[in-house]
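To: structure desk
From: M.T.
Subject: fold request, one chain
Message: Could you run this one when you get a chance? Sequence is below, nothing fancy, just the single chain.
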Amino acid sequence: MRRNDWLTPEGTRDLLFEECAAKRYLEERITGIFENYSYSEVITPGIEFYDVFNGKARHFPPETMYKLVDGKNRLMVLRPDTTMPIARLCATRLRGEELPLKLFYNQSIFMVNPKDSGRDDEFEQSGIEIIGGENEDSDYEALFLAAKALCECDEDYRLEIGDSGIFGELLSQYNYSDEQQTEKLRVNIEDKNYPAIDAMLGDDKSNEALRTLPRLFGGFEVFEEARKRLCGEAIEKKLARLEKLCRELADIIPEEKIRVDLGLVNKKNYYTGIIFKGYVEGYGQPVLSGGRYDTLIGEFGGREAKAVGFAVNIEAAAKVYLKNKGKTLAKTPDVLVFSNDKIAALKHCEKLISEGLSVRNFNGACPKCAEKFAKKHGIHRLDVINENGDAESREV
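Reply: Done. C-alpha cells follow.
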C-alpha cells in the first residue's frame, strides 16, 4: 500500500532553498514595480463560495476547481483565479471608492490540471487590476507594466497581444451558437490545435476566417494579412485600435519584444477586449497573462466598471530565472557564531545583526566542528565566544 504521508498531492511540490529565494526575489522586484506606480495591495480569501466562479461571464469548469463543503453544507472552492474575487471586492467593499482603482496582489491560486500536463495545481501570482480606467490609457499602462515585470524574470521575453473581441465577432458572423462547441473551439484556437479546428469546422468555406485566426501571428505585418482574410466593420475597428496600440507601445517597449497574435482568445471567457500573454526564453508556457474585462464587475451586482489587469506566475518565473540566470540567491551568512553558552551566542548574534551583518548560530558540539561547517558552506568568519563571554573572530 502506498504511503501518502510521504508524498505531495499531484500537481504540487515542495520548494527548497534556491527556489524559495528566487521566488521571493522576483515577488519583491515585481511588487516594487507596482508600488512605484502607486498601486494598493489587496488580499482576498483563499476559500471562496463556488458561486463566485459560476456566473455567466465568469464560468469556471467545475472539474478544474478544488471543491469542499463548509460547516453549513455550502459548496466552497479553493480560489482558482484572482481577478474574479477582486471583481467581487470592487462590487462590494470598494463600491464607494473613487475610480480608477489601482490594485495589486500576491496570492496563490489552485486549479486541477490534467495529469502529466506539466502545470502546477498550486502557484502564486503577482498581478495588478486597473478598475474604472479609460480604455486606452489603462491598456497602455497595463501592457507597459507587464513588459517591465517580464524583464525582471528574463531580458529575453516576448509579449503577445491580441483582441478577444475578434473571435466573438467571427462567431456572430457565422452563427456559431452552440455553447459547448464554442468553448471547445475557443480552447483549440488558443492552443493552435489545427487538426482539431479543421475537424470542428469541416469543409464549410464560410468558416475560413475562424480557421485562419490562429495562423495570424507574428510582427506588425500581421495586421495587413488580417485585413485580407477577415472582414466586417466591427473587426476592422478592432484591428485599427490594436494596431495603433501596438505601434505606440513600440516607443516604450522594444518592437522586437511585441508579437501580434489574433488567435489569442483565452480560455477564460470574461475577457472583452485586448488580451495578452508573456513568455520568457526556455519556458514553453506563458509566465504572464492578462486582458481587458469590461462586464465582470457589473455581474456581481455592483456598479459597472471597465477594467484591465494581468498576473505573473511567480513559481514559473522563478524556475526560468534560476535556469537562465544561474544565480545563487540564497544568502551566505557573514558570520558563523559558536559558544557553549547558548544565551551568550544569541546575544552576540543580536549584536552582529545590529551592526548590519547576517549570522548563523551554530548548534554543534565544538569549535572545530563549527570551523569545518563554515568552510563547507563558504562562511568566511567564525566568532567563538569564550567562557568570559568575549568573542574571538577567526578568518575561515
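Reply (cont.): The two ends are 50 Å apart (CA to CA). Let me know if you need anything else for the meeting.
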